[in-house]
Specification:
binds 1,3,4-trihydroxy-5-OXO-cyclohexanecarboxylic acid; 5 strands; alpha/beta; single chain; globular
Length: 148
């Protein structure tokens, strides 16, 4: 049987990883993140697909498309985390377990980053651990998927 698919969704400005405020977001690029998460997924028996968009509607479309196709979602919605009811509604409708990830520790940053719409739908949230957070999210999803 084919490995269950886990969709990793990255929101706006995450295409700039590596050059964007490296003191906050680290020096790894999005391509590095894709390599590391795909390899870790393979070790866990998960087929990882990594996507990134600067457009809110793309995130909504990808979450809708995960319903019935993907076994899990890892989502770093970037700034849409703090603003998007549309992303929240898509996650609530998807009926796919989602783990929220942030590279930076959003609760140690500006007040406007403390609130997350994504958290209202996510099974769990990992922040402040840099790109390692994505690997931890895959570990958590692997356990959930195996357990179901
Ligand atoms: C982020 C945190 C958000 O507040 C910010 O808008 C991002 C990245 C993170 O990974 O730390 O774009 O989601």
């Amino acid at each position: 049987m084919a490995d269950p698919i886990v969709l990793i969704i990255n929101g706006p400005n995450l295409n700039m990883l590596g050059t964007r405020q490296p003191e906050v977001y680290g020096s790894e690029t999005l391509a590095d993140l894709e390599t590391a998460t795909t390899a870790h997924g393979a070790r866990l028996g998960l087929a990882v697909e990594v996507r990134q968009s600067n457009h809110e509607g793309d995130l909504v479309d990808w979450i809708q498309g995960a319903r019935g196709r993907c076994a899990g979602i890892v989502i770093n919605a970037g700034a849409y985390t703090h603003t998007s009811v549309a992303v929240l509604d898509a996650l609530l409708a998807a009926e796919v377990p989602a783990i929220e990830v942030h590279l930076s520790h959003i609760h140690q940053r500006e007040e406007f980053r403390h609130h997350s719409y994504v958290s209202k739908a996510a099974k769990g949230m990992i922040c402040g651990l840099g790109s390692h957070g994505y690997l931890l999210a895959l570990d958590a999803l692997a356990r959930m998927i195996r357990g179901s």
